Amino acid sequence: MFSGGKDSIVMLHLAAKAFWPARLPFPVMHVDTGHNFPEVLEFRDRRVGELEARLVVASVQQSINEGKVVEETGPRASRNRLQTTTLLDAIEEHRFDALFGGARRDEEKARAKERVYSFRDDFGQWDPKNQRPELWNLYNGRIRQGEHIRVFPISNWTELDIWQYIARENVEIPQVYFAHERQVFSRDDMWLADSEFVTRSEDEVVVTRKVRYRTVGDMSCTGAVESEAETLEQIIEEVSATRITERGATRADDRVSEAAMEDRKKEGYF
Amino acid sequence: MEFLRFATAGSVDDGKSTLIGRLLYDTKSIFQDQMESIEATSIQMGNDYTNLALLTDGLRAEREQGITIDVAYRYFATPKRKFIIADTPGHTQYTRNMVTGASTADVALVLVDARHGVVEQSKRHAFLASLLRIPHLVVCVNKMDLIDYDEKAFNTVKEEFRNFAMKLDISDLTFIPVSALHGDNVVERSANMPWYEGSSLLHHLEEVHIASDRNHIDARFPVQYVIRPQSDDHHDYRGYAGTVAGGVFKPGDEVMVLPSGFTSTVASIDSFDGPVSEAFGPMAVTIRLTDDIDVSRGDMICRPNNQPTSSQDLQAMLCWMSETSPLAPRMKLALKHTTRPSRVMVADLQYRIDVNTLHREENPETLTLNEIGRVSLRSTQPLFFDEYRRNRNTGSFILIDEATNATVAAGIIVGSGT
Predict the structure, then answer these.
(1) Count of A-B CB contacts under 8 Å
(2) Mean pLDDT, rounded, for B362-366
(3) Position A131 pLDDT exceeds 90
(4) Measured between CB atoms, does B77 come within 8 Å of chain A?
(5) Which residue of A lies nearest to B406 if distances are taken between CA atoms?
């Protein structure tokens, strides 16, 4: 699973290293909400091309068109939750037994309980109370037909580890991660990008700010932080000094409730 | 930077969460939004103080019931090292969780309440830490503030623990008197205990020597994947990818491949960043050999004069983890050892061990959830292993229930034969 975000970029880099000089023996899948940052889509296509990998795009728009999910409406509408259906349909269509994901345990408290090999049943559900114990480096990937495993190889990495690795390995990342001038408006103490995918209310005024993104998800629910960090060294300095977690600073999708992530994961979310 | 993984053990009342909270707080590893979130939840739950346990209790059920269900992982760093904490709950599923958290730990941290001394649970922690051969055991004698920072009381606990630990195989045992609540000897040395001459807990964790804990003697390379690019640039390339499980490999080394027994020479050790001059654990590399011999996933590359035991019969200590069915003789299970899957039959259940008293009950009929026992297993094909005490990578395995696909046991190899 490749979103074009920094964690999946690192994971793709690790995979390319692991199988070198052969190509990846599996395709790269992007769950496309249709609300992506254009810079990120451009990056995705270029990176997949460089690796000569096969790209599978699972489209939320297509799920909407086919009537499998219904678009949310109103100013807070987001396609975040709809992705789950699109993802699960794609897993079934391509008959994937396992999917690699770039989730990290330090991101979020429900993810802190996630296994490296996370078992999903026929419905794609995660059952946090009934997880397989993981001992040493011996992973149990056995499944029955219709079930699958989500594999999170960088579970134990922190946000800082990711940035230090990107700097050490000279990994290319989309420009939205570096400080840049952008048209934004303030909502819930976050800077959201002004785009065709969000409906602003009258008192949400667009201003120009120098910002960067700490996480990259949908344009409709990913907030930017004000920043002057234009280089990797400056980003590492900023991340080392920050007192707010990356999801706390930037993700509206986690703010729905205290257990927002846990609930979405149980339904089959990443 | 070097990584240190440590597992904590203790019940809620020992102040384990407070100690972890203190380590995280004093190393500035708790973020403002996390702190605000747990403060708000603490008030909602009617707690008098900010409950630092909420930091790790990530599931709704855990927060509702105020208990920890599952191992939680936390991360922090100092300028010297990066740390991964496996916080293992003291209540339900205790043994299963501690074995899971401890299986990869460099250090085990056991908490003892200074007022109560060594209780049954402390003994259980020490036994599991020694069974899993965690190289370093640190006993934090907590709540020193409640006994007026009394040196004599600390020494009594120390002696008591030592007496029990003598029956076990623990190579490095350290005692630190702390007050997690007030921070004494957690990050900074305490002014309240001038009689204590050792390091603070954090200082100890930063300095404890772990580089030599790995096996650098017996060369072991379980083949994980065969790399054959099938492209024009690398037409004849054939490499064996995996993670070094022991010893050191260098180009030019004479090696033997098991089970075939063919010998060859290491032509090169490859990585994405170019060839490397030597590979040791836990490096992930690709080994190429000078001869085209049959090597596939699950095979073991070693040295002809230093081979692992190759046998279908193994002796092991098992920690049984199934909630639904007990282990019994004649049972058949799937086994995963290194990169080699196999099937085994339980040939004999020799004894069950009481983790609190170390008492052995001979010839029990079953092992049930969270019980530990000694078994003989017969495998469908030869396995290539070392004793766990010599090599954690080639001496450990898991057992899987073939009907449910659940992981039902952790296994520690203690020998071969029947």
Answers:
(1) 130
(2) 95
(3) no
(4) yes
(5) A132
CATH number of B309-416: 2.40.30.10
Distance in angstroms (rounded) separating the CA atoms of residues A21 and B235: 11
Which chain A residues contact residue B55 at CB under 8 A? 109
DSSP 3-state of B126: helix
B-chain CB neighbours of A110 within 8 Å are 58-59
pLDDT tens per residue across span A34-86? 888 888 999 999 999 999 999 999 888 888 888 888 888 877 777 777 888 88
Chain B within 8 Å of A135 (Cβ-Cβ)? yes
Residues 6+ apart with CB under 8 A from B256: B262, B263, B301, B302, B303, B304, B307
Give yes or no for residue B146 having a pLDDT over 70: yes
Sequence spans of domains, chain B:
2-213, 220-302, 309-416
Residues from chain B that touch A132, judged by Cβ atoms under 8 A, are 406-407
Whether this prediction's pTM lies above 0.80 is answered by: yes
| Residue B100 forms contact with A (CB below 8 Å) | yes
| Token pair belonging to B287 | 């080994």
Q: Which fold has domain B220-302?
A: Elongation Factor Tu (Ef-tu); domain 3 (2.40.30)
| Rg, C-alpha atoms of chain B | 24
Predicted complex ipTM: 0.89
Is A109's Cβ below 8 Å from some Cβ in B? yes
Q: Do B396 and A136 touch (CB under 8 A)?
A: yes
Q: Given an 8 Å threshold on Cβ–Cβ distance, is B393 in contact with A137?
A: yes
Nearest chain A Cα to B61, which residue?
A129
B220-302 and B309-416 agree in CATH topology: yes
B24 pLDDT tier (thresholds 50, 70, 90): confident
CATH annotation of B2-213: 3.40.50.300
How many CB atoms neighbour CB A116 within 10 A? 16
The per-type count for chain A, helices as H runs and strands as E runs, is 8, 9
Identify the pLDDT of residue A130: 81
List all residues 6 or more positions away from A184 whose beta carbon is below 8 Å from its beta carbon.
A191, A192, A193, A194, A206, A207, A208, A209, A211, A224
- Mean pLDDT for A184-210 is 86
Which candidate, B189, B191, B213, places its Cα nearest to that of B199?
A: B189
Q: Which of B60, B227, B231 sits opposite A262 (nearest CB)?
A: B60
Per-residue pLDDT band at A100 (split at 50, 70, 90): very high
Tell me the domains of chain A and their CATH numbers. 6-158+258-267 (3.40.50.620), 171-255 (no CATH)
Nearest CB to A262 within list B59, B229, B334: B59
Q: Calculate what percentage of chain B has a pLDDT beyond 90.
A: 65
pLDDT grade for A244, boundaries at 50, 70 and 90: confident
State whether A22 and B231 contact (CB < 8 Å): yes
| Min distance B405 CA to chain A CA atoms (Å) | 6
Do residues A197 and A71 touch, judged by C-beta distance below 8 A?
no
Residue B299 CB contacts under 8 Å (≥ 6 apart), including other chains: B222, B223, B240, B257, B258, B259, B260, B340
